[in-house]
Specification:
- By secondary structure, the protein is an alpha/beta fold.
- It has two domains: 140 residues, Sandwich (Immunoglobulin-like), CATH 2.60.40.1120; 173 residues, Collagenase (Catalytic Domain) (3-Layer(aba) Sandwich).
- It has eight helices and 15 strands.
- It has a five-stranded mixed beta sheet with strand order 12-11-13-15-14. Strands 4-1-6 form a three-stranded mixed beta sheet. It has a three-stranded antiparallel beta sheet with strand order 3-2-5, with no helix packed on it.
- α3 crosses α6.
- About 4% of the residues have low confidence.
- The structure holds zinc ion (ZN).
Length: 358
């Protein structure tokens, strides 16, 4: 009898398993922006009143046996170790196909290179995406959307770097050789702070006259005496990819006078795709928070810039988008850092029963 029962049980499980594996469940993979392991994070899916969850394994995968995967729009990923921000990403078809992939953002970004190497900076996605003034972009600007391309927070693509920096002579204001040398030295100091190569000097005709130049990123620097502010920097993006950067300066003295290096660095940060912020001490402080102004990128600037570039590179690599918004939604729902499970305290051994009674 027991043998028959065992046979029936194994037959039933053999029948059930393939069905459960055939598109009924949700299988996916979780990656992290800093390359650490997502193993141990818990993935929740709510569906038709039922809620199920699974733990991410050592390969980054999870599998949830829910009966209505196709209708599920949202998952929740919570890392009990507290190393990664909670995330509430949407389940979307991956660009280029493949199983659903998700990206977790660390709570702390460790700066690996440059002036601030070794510093650990708490990641502030809400601060990075909060607009510091009505008309300006936030440090992480809004997701850029165009038809037929996945949206994304605009960044320069890795293959566009280092950006070619050319000086425009068009408006009749002549920039001397020493002006361009002074400009490139501010650009170089910015690179040292940001911890990577961003710029290379180029001639104007190289940027405009070369048909292959479209693949290479370029920044045009121009003097405009009619400018009402000292400088203005901007970028143009398409579907989350920056395609051009431009800087206008009121006069060449802003370049030659080291006192204004902070203005040039500020405008250069804009051409890299970073807007204004008042969320931390910064080289791109908005006008309303002059007390937060710094003449060079602070550890917060560098950490958030490195994080965004890496995050967007990974989003494109995995064919996904919306990871920053997913983490902000996750933080709204799970605002507290989880307390890691305590190791069970060693049990106190009862004192041996010795006494007069024995
Ligand atoms: Zn600005």
């Amino acid at each position: 009898m027991a043998r028959i029962l065992l046979f029936v049980v194994s037959l039933v499980s053999a029948l059930v398993q393939p069905v459960a594996g055939q598109g009924m469940g949700l299988r996916g993979v979780v990656h992290t922006v800093d390359g650490g392991t997502a193993a141990g994070a818990r993935v929740f899916v709510a569906c038709a009143g039922a809620r199920d969850s699974a733990v991410v394994d050592s390969t980054g995968h999870f599998q949830i046996e829910v009966p209505c995967a196709a209708a599920v729009g949202l998952v929740e990923i919570v890392d009990p170790s507290g190393r990664y921000l909670p995330s509430m990403p949407r389940i979307r078809p991956r660009v280029g196909g493949g199983e659903p992939a998700f990206l977790l953002t660390p709570r702390v970004w460790k700066i690996a290179s440059g002036t601030h190497a070794g510093q650990a900076v708490p990641v502030d996605l809400v601060g990075a995406t909060t607009r510091a003034c009505r008309a300006c972009a936030a440090f992480f600007s809004a997701e850029d959307t165009v038809n037929m391309r996945p949206p994304g927070i605009p960044v320069w693509l890795e293959h566009s770097l280092p950006l070619r920096v050319a000086f425009s002579q068009e408006d009749g204001v002549t920039m001397t050789e020493s002006d361009s040398v002074a400009f490139m030295s501010v650009a170089h100091a910015l690179e040292v702070d940001l911890g990577r190569r961003w710029f290379q000097p180029a001639r104007e005709e190289e940027v405009f006259g070369d048909p292959a130049a479209e693949d290479l990123g370029s920044i045009i620097v121009a003097i405009d005496p009619g400018l009402t502010t000292a400088g203005r920097g901007n970028w143009a993006a398409q579907g989350g990819e920056i395609v051009a950067g431009v800087i206008y300066l009121q006069s060449t003295s802003l370049i030659s006078n080291p006192r204004y290096a902070g203005v040039v660095a500020h405008e250069l940060m804009h051409t890299l795709g970073f807007g204004h912020t008042c969320s931390w001490r910064t080289v791109v402080a908005a006008e309303r928070c002059p007390g937060r102004r710094s003449d060079s990128p602070t550890p917060e600037d560098v950490a958030h810039a490195q994080l965004l570039l890496r995050l967007r590179t990974l989003e494109r690599h995995y064919g996904i988008y919306g990871s920053v918004a997913a983490a902000i939604a996750g933080l709204e729902k799970y605002p507290h850092v989880p307390v890691p499970a305590q190791e069970p305290a060693p049990a106190v051994e009862p004192a041996p029963l010795v006494g007069s009674a024995a």
